[in-house]
TrEMBL record, chain A:
CDD domains the UniProt entry points to: TM_PBP2
Bilayer topology: Multi-pass membrane protein
Protein name stated in the entry: Carbohydrate ABC transporter permease
Family in the record: Belongs to the binding-protein-dependent transport system permease family.
Natural source organism: Streptomyces cylindrosporus
Domain of life: Bacteria
Automatic annotation (TrEMBL), chain B:
Key words of the record: Cell membrane, Membrane, Transmembrane, Transmembrane helix, Transport
Top-level taxonomic group: Bacteria
CDD domains, per the entry: TM_PBP2 (cd06261)
InterPro entries in alphabetical order: ABC_transporter_permease (IPR051393), MetI-like (IPR000515), MetI-like_sf (IPR035906)
Protein name as it appears in the record: Sugar ABC transporter permease
Segments traversing the membrane: 12-31, 64-85, 97-118, 138-156, 199-219, 253-276
UniProt xrefs under Pfam families: BPD_transp_1
Membrane topology: Multi-pass membrane protein
Length: 286, 285
């Protein structure tokens, strides 16, 4: 794709200079982006004494796994992580399935009030989330769902306007001829949805899944409000508590906890990043 | 019929967990209620209290200050980055991924990392400054520096993400326009202001509106880094609402505050929509 190796020999000296300056600036930017991750990881491998006595960029030597072991075993990180994983998987699965179903109805089926409903969905995207937390909490309390998995999962598992909007926009681009042909062959609406629409929408569904997973994993405020014991506490709340209690006396434990919380997301992101970039390019403008 | 079956789960979520709570906020804002006992109807008392509550207006000022620090810096940096990335180059894809990495980082975990980085004695920032003989301030315990630090953390986190949207916008500009401009003898500055910027307006609009709405609702970074301090200098609206509702259990007052924040966001969003509608002339869709 790129021909910069061959072309650089034929470029003028100012052009080469310009290009290398540009690269240098971009590399500094990239370093600033990744730096905090690398420094965190490095610090999490340092012994407590070294953490305070050495510069942040000095490599951990000797490197130790003790911080990770401590935060994992003594500070409940393993159970926080498990709760977070369970909640994120359930919410992601629910959002992708239910958003796709609603998006199909809104994109393709004729029924009274369809456009009205679609605009209603869009309008709520503009309402701040914090505004709804008090009544949402009261409702959950009346349903007896404080400090339960149901309380953590229910508000978002049925899909969000954002998810419906994202998938609907994609369904609109699929040619209608495919469906008409399938109908002539006797396919049902449900059959068309499952066998034609869904398989043709894999990138956008993967994007929605990734965004939902990351948002759910990172969500702090709702779990903070709806959970109040280690029975259901998720990793964001666990990390915030760790920070509140031990930021000054056990910084190595807190940093190891932060590293553990960040790594799974980086893996998810690296696996799916191509879909995200592509679908932002497709839907970001409209 | 089939339509309603497909819509049912989504509608349950929409009505029960979005519309009902929004209606609830409006109702609760007219009551005095500590979430326990029975609510007492107080009419407009909560709204009258807001008018005379200096902490609320400080929170409004802090929020606006944060948005003003955050949005222009983030948008300009993202635009420069997108312009630099909008060409074929070796390692371009890898760089793009690296720039977007901060976007998905967990704000809580990041808060910890940044707290450590900005620590006056052991933090990397001051260690780095000391290499040049500069004595860095105690960033997060300074009423002057705390808010700019929070804003830079968010600039760090969202610049790459914003860059993605602007890059997508840049790539949608037809190459033929630039060729025509070259024939007419336009220089790089003219190309930028006469072609690139005007045609980037739809992406710019999307990015500015969504990022501004997000900035007005900033919560996580304040929660983990400063808890509104020092001396209330980073107490933003969303953090204030959180404290009133879930630490002081003043749900009526918090709901009225939420209405105020909503009105503020609506006002700013409407202003942005009007500004862009007047100026966006081109439509390539």
């Amino acid at each position: 794709m790129s021909s910069s190796i061959t072309s650089s020999s034929s470029m003028s000296i100012p052009a080469v200079l310009r290009r290398s300056t540009l690269y240098a600036i971009l590399l500094i930017g990239a370093l600033l982006s990744v730096g905090p991750y690398l420094l965190t990881l490095n610090a999490a491998f340092k012994r407590p004494a070294d953490l305070l006595s050495t510069d942040a960029w000095t490599p951990a030597h000797p490197a130790t796994f003790a911080n990770f072991a401590d935060v994992w075993n003594q500070y409940g990180m393993s159970s926080f992580l498990l709760h977070t994983l369970a909640v994120s998987v359930v919410v992601t699965a629910g959002q992708v399935v239910f958003s796709a179903m609603a998006a199909y109805a809104l994109a393709r089926l004729e029924f009274p009030g369809r456009d009205w409903l679609f605009w209603g969905y869009l309008a709520t995207m503009m309402v701040p989330q914090m505004i709804t937390l008090v009544p949402l909490f009261l409702m959950m309390r009346d349903l007896g769902m404080v400090d339960t998995y149901a309380g953590l999962v229910l508000p978002t598992v049925f899909g969000t306007p954002y998810g419906v909007f994202l998938v609907r926009q994609h369904f609109m681009t699929i040619p209608k001829d495919l469906e008409s042909a399938a109908r002539i062959d006797g396919a049902t609406t449900w059959g068309i949805f499952v066998r034609i629409m869904l398989p043709l929408s894999r990138p956008i569904l993967a994007t929605l899944a990734t965004i939902t997973f990351i948002n759910t994993w990172n969500n702090l405020i709702w779990p903070l409000i709806i959970t109040n014991s280690d029975r259901t506490r998720v990793i964001t709340v666990g990390i915030a508590a760790l920070q509140g209690q031990h930021a000054s006396d056990l910084p190595h434990i807190v940093l190891a906890g932060a590293a553990i919380a960040l790594l799974p997301l980086i893996v998810v992101f690296l696996v799916f990043q191509r879909h995200i970039v592509r679908s932002i390019a497709l839907t970001g403008l409209k | 019929m089939e339509a309603y079956i497909l819509l049912t789960p989504s509608l349950i979520g929409f009505l029960l967990f979005l519309l009902a709570p929004i209606a609830g906020v409006v109702v609760i804002s007219f009551f005095d209620w500590n979430l326990m006992g029975s609510p007492r109807f107080v009419g407009l008392a909560n709204y009258r209290e807001i008018a005379g509550d200096s902490e609320v207006w400080r929170a409004v000022r802090n929020t606006v200050y944060y948005v003003v620090l955050n949005i222009p810096a983030q948008t300009v940096l993202a635009l420069l980055l997108a312009l630099a990335m909008n060409r074929r180059m070796r390692g371009g894809k890898v760089l793009r991924v690296l720039f977007v990495l901060p976007w998905m980082a967990m704000p809580v975990a990041l808060g910890i990392v940044w707290n450590w980085a900005f620590d006056p004695q052991h933090g990397v920032i001051n260690q780095f400054l000391s290499l040049f003989g500069v004595d860095g301030p105690a960033w997060l315990s300074s009423t002057t520096w705390a808010m700019p630090v929070l804003a830079s953390v968010n600039v760090w986190q969202y610049t790459g993400y914003t860059m993605l949207f602007l890059l997508a916008g840049l790539q949608a500009i037809p190459e033929s326009l630039y060729e025509a401009a070259d024939l007419d003898g336009a220089g790089p500055v003219q190309r930028f202001f006469r072609i690139t910027l005007p045609l980037l307006r739809p992406s710019m609009f999307f990015v500015l509106v969504t990022n501004t709405i997000g900035s007005f609702q900033m919560f996580d970074t304040v929660y983990v880094m400063t808890q509104g301090g020092p001396g209330g200098s980073t107490d933003t609206m969303n953090f204030h609402i959180y404290q009133q509702a879930f630490q002081l259990f003043r749900s009526g007052y918090a709901s009225a505050l939420a209405m105020l924040l909503f009105a503020l966001i609506l006002l700013v969003t409407a202003a942005q929509v009007l500004y862009f509608r007047k100026r966006t002339v081109y439509d390539f869709s």
